[in-house]
Amino acid sequence: MPAAVTALLLSGFVALLAAGGVWALTREQIRRDLVGAAGSTRALELHRTRLASYPAAFSAMAPLSSLRRTDLTAEVAAAVAEELNAWLYSAGGMCADAATRGAILGLRDSCDRWARNGGPRPPQLYEFRNLAVAFLRRDLDLAGLEPFDVRRAVTHLAKLRDDLDDATTTP
């Protein structure tokens, strides 16, 4: 076989290998981009679903507010347990983080036991309520879990200074 034909076949083979390699790398990059975009879309949809469904859980827990502690009875706890149970079997319960579901389940069960057995208010009821509120807020990426003292109201500028000081001292 003449040298020119051999060189032509060899260069064609190398070009095919290079094109195949580029195609494989491009295909893999496109796949990674699509998977990344799907993950971002999923996270956004999860957050939207939580934003739409979590207010119902807060509403269900409203009768347990510290403002209403004196009005809280076993009958009210029964109604709260029913509402929380309905929420757990809705989109909210479906998309809640496992720790959030656990806190809501603990609160629901605590309210339900009190409603069925009567007696004094269970001591863990408010522990579960506080955990549920904290986890619901965490799932929504909401700030505001830090304590707030109304008597020590600060101006926005002072708060900004405090935040800036915290940011510069935190490694």
Describe this structure in words.
- The chain is mainly alpha-helical and 171 residues long.
- It has one domain (3-169).
- The protein has helices spanning 3-61, 74-88, 91-95, 98-117, 124-139, 156-169.
- It is elongated, with a radius of gyration of 29 Å.
Secondary structure: elements and pairs:
Elements: H1 3-61, H2 74-88, H3 91-95, H4 98-117, H5 124-139, H6 156-169
Helix pairs in contact: 1-2, 1-5, 2-4, 4-5
Helix content: over 70%
Major beta-sheet overview: none
Number of strands: 0
- Give the overall silhouette: elongated
Uncertain stretches of 5 or more adjacent residues: none
- What is the straight-line distance between the termini? 71 Å
Task: Tell me the fraction of residues in β-strands, as a range.
Answer: under 5%
Give the helix tally.
Answer: 6
Number of domains: 1
List the main descriptive attributes of the protein structure presented here.
6 helices, mainly alpha, 171 residues
